[in-house]
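Before relying on records like the one below, remember that each one covers exactly one chain. Contacts with other chains, cofactors or solvent are not represented anywhere in the record.
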Amino acid sequence: MRGLRLDPSTVVMLDRLSLLLLTVIVSAVLTAAMVMQFVFAEIPCPLCLLQRVAMFGCCFGLFHQLRTQESERGTGVALLFALLLLVIAARQTLLDVVPRPGHAYIGSAVFGVHMPVWSVAIGVSLLLALALRLALFGAPRIRPQTALPPLARAARILEVYVVVICAINFAAVVLQCGFDECHTFGYRLLT
């Protein structure tokens, strides 16, 4: 029995759509985290800030993959940052799995789940999605004459958006931590 054969340009389009969808999802998670920080005044802990760095790294790896046709380096970068996210989130989850005075989860729960546990799920989901992408699509190559302008424009807009929220996040971290050890009691440079 022969498998379903798709046109190479269809495979490339599905591959690019999957990369774009993953980037939209991760950037939506980062946006939600920043909304909780600025709208609901929930100052992130140092491990939460590291989880954000790992998610930004995933986004930038995915953007690199969307731009390139020659290699899967961007996917490799995204996989490494997804693994980093998983390690950081698992550590924080294990630290806070049994609440004790002064070490309870920081921040509000979303659907009854706190951010470190969500980050574990996000890290595992990213690893699984990127592995599935490679298993399903292999390493499709775009020929210069078959570029996908609408997808490229959407990727550029999303890229600018992620760079902007990364800059806002960096500024917030500097306000919160200064250039010293980070804490969760307030914005150091504003007090």
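The mean pLDDT is 82.
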